[in-house]
Design goal:
transmembrane; Heat Shock Protein 90; two-stranded antiparallel ribbon; five-stranded mixed sheet; alpha+beta; rod-shaped
Length: about 450
C-alpha cells in the first residue's frame, strides 16, 4: 500500500468515524469518538486495503487492455468473494466482539440487514475502484499508442523526404552522362541539350517539394524530357502519348514519368534498325508506361533508384500498388492515378489528430459512465439510510436501486465496448462476405 493510499484511507476513516459518532452515538464522549474512529479504520483499511491488493494482483496477472474480458470476469468474482468475507469479518468484530451482540443473532433481524447493506455498499465502492483502475490503464495505453504513432509518422516523413532527396543528384548525374556523350558525338546538339536541361532541372527543383502533381503537369514535363532524349537518340526512340482527358486531372508523384522514361532508356538498346518504342497512356485509373523489350547487357549492376523510388513513395502515400509486368516482348509499369491532392506529407498530424479525437471521445464516454456510477454509489446508500430511519417496515429504496442499477449496467456495457465489438464483428463478416462474392471492386 502506497503512502498516498494510506493517507486516503485515514481521511475516509476520520470522516466516516466522525459521521457515525455525530449521528449514531448515544453518548458524545472522547472514548466513543475514539472507538468510532477505530471501528471506521477497521472497515476502511481491511475492505479498502483488501480490494486494493486484489486489484493490484489481478492487474499484474491480467492486462486490462489485452485481456479485458478475462480481467473483468475475474474482477467481478474477486469483488464478490473478497467483500462478502471482509464485511462479515468487520461486522463480526464490531457487533459481536465490541458491542457484545450474541453471535446467534448475527445473521438475523437488523444485524442481518446491516450485513446485507454494508456488503452492497462495499461492492459498489469496489466496482468503482476497479473501473477507475481500468480507466488509468486505458489512459496509459492511449498515451503509449499516441507516442508510438508519432514515432511511426516521423519515421515515414523522414523516409519520404529521403526518397525525394534522391531525385536531385540522380537526375543531374544521368543528365550529365547524356551531355558527356553528346559533346563527343555532336557539339551543336550538346549546346541545345544544355539549354533544355536547364529548363527541365528548373521543373525538378520546383516540383521536388510537392508530394503530388497533376497528370497533366507531369505529361507536359515528360514531353519536354522526351524532346531532350530525341535530341540524342533521334529516330532510334519514339514516344506515344495517349492519356484520357479525364485522367489528366488526377494526380501522380512528381518526376515519376521522368524516372520511368529514364529507366526504359537505361535498360534497353535503341538503334535506327530496331527503335525503342515507348507508350504513355491511361487505363482503369492507372498511368501506364510501356516499351518493347530490347534488354541490353548491363556492364555493372544497376543502383535501382528509379523504379524502387516510385514504388516506395507510393507505398507511403496510398494503399494502391505500383504494378510491374514483364514479358518476352514488352515491359510495362502501372502507377496509380490518385483522385485526392496532397500538398504536404501530413501523416504525423493526421495520426496525431485521429488519436487525439479518439482519445477525447473515449474520455467523454468514460467520464459519463463514472459520473453515473459515482452518483449511484453515493445516493443509493443514503436512500436506504433514509428508508431505514423513516419507514423501516416498507423498503421502497429497492425500487430506485434496481431501476438505476439496470441503467448503470447498460451504460457499462455500452462504454466498455461489449456491444460495439459485436457490431464490428458483424460488419466485418458482411464486408468479407461481399468481397468473397465478388461484389466489391
Amino acid at each position: 500500500m502506497t503512502r498516498k493510499e494510506t493517507i486516503t484511507l485515514l481521511w475516509v476513516s476520520g470522516i466516516t468515524g466522525l459521521f457515525f459518532f455525530l449521528f449514531f452515538s448515544d453518548e458524545k464522549s472522547l472514548q466513543n469518538l475514539v472507538i468510532s474512529f477505530l471501528v471506521a479504520s477497521l472497515y476502511s483499511f481491511l475492505i479498502g486495503g483488501g480490494n486494493g491488493l486484489v486489484n493490484s494482483f489481478l492487474s499484474k496477472k491480467y492486462s486490462w487492455i489485452d485481456q479485458t474480458r478475462t480481467r473483468t470476469v475475474l474482477g467481478m468474482i474477486a469483488i464478490l468473494l473478497v467483500n462478502v468475507v471482509l464485511v462479515l469479518f468487520c461486522n463480526y468484530v464490531n457487533f459481536v466482539l465490541i458491542q457484545g451482540i450474541s453471535p446467534a443473532g448475527f445473521f438475523k433481524g437488523s444485524i442481518g440487514f446491516v450485513n446485507w447493506l454494508i456488503i452492497n455498499i462495499a461492492l459498489l465502492i469496489s466496482t468503482f475502484l476497479h473501473a477507475r483502475s481500468f480507466m488509468n490503464e486505458w489512459k496509459k495505453a492511449s498515451r503509449k499508442e499516441v507516442v508510438e504513432q508519432k514515432l511511426i509518422a516521423k519515421s515515414a516523413n523522414a523516409q519520404f523526404e529521403s526518397l525525394k532527396n534522391q531525385l536531385d543528384p540522380h537526375f543531374l548525374f544521368n543528365s550529365l552522362n547524356v551531355l558527356s556523350a553528346l559533346i563527343d558525338e555532336n557539339p551543336n546538339q550538346a549546346q541545345s541539350f544544355t539549354s533544355a536541361m536547364s529548363k527541365i532541372y528548373r521543373y525538378v527543383l520546383e516540383q521536388k517539394d510537392k508530394d503530388l502533381v497533376t497528370v497533366e503537369e507531369e505529361i507536359d514535363f515528360a514531353k519536354t524530357y522526351c524532346d531532350l532524349l530525341k535530341t540524342r537518340f533521334e529516330d532510334s526512340v519514339s514516344f506515344e502519348f495517349l492519356v484520357n482527358d479525364g485522367d489528366r486531372k488526377g494526380f501522380v508523384v512528381p518526376l515519376s514519368l521522368q524516372l520511368l522514361l529514364e529507366n526504359c532508356i537505361k535498360h534497353n538498346y535503341a538503334t535506327s534498325a530496331k527503335p525503342l518504342t515507348i507508350k504513355i497512356y491511361s487505363e482503369n485509373g492507372n498511368l501506364i508506361i510501356e516499351n518493347n523489350l530490347q534488354a541490353r547487357e548491363q556492364v555493372k549492376e544497376s543502383a535501382g533508384i528509379g523504379l524502387a523510388n516510385i514504388v516506395q513513395r507510393y507505398s507511403l502515400m496510398t494503399k494502391r500498388n505500383v504494378f510491374i509486368e514483364k514479358s518476352e516482348s514488352h515491359f510495362k509499369v502501372k502507377i496509380p492515378i490518385l483522385t485526392e491532392k496532397i500538398t504536404e506529407m501530413n501523416t504525423q498530424n493526421t495520426i496525431e489528430m485521429a488519436a487525439y479525437e479518439k482519445a477525447a471521445k473515449r474520455v467523454e464516454e468514460l467520464k459519463g459512465f463514472y459520473g453515473n456510477l459515482i452518483s449511484y454509489c453515493i445516493f443509493i446508500p443514503f436512500l436506504f439510510l433514509i428508508n431505514w430511519k423513516t419507514s423501516p417496515h416498507y423498503w421502497w429504496a429497492f425500487w430506485p436501486m434496481f431501476g438505476w442499477g439496470i441503467g448503470v449496467i447498460s451504460h457499462a456495457i455500452k462504454t466498455f465496448g461489449i456491444g460495439n465489438n459485436w457490431e464490428e464483428k458483424q460488419i466485418r463478416k458482411l464486408m468479407e462476405k461481399e468481397q468473397n462474392s465478388g461484389n466489391w471492386k
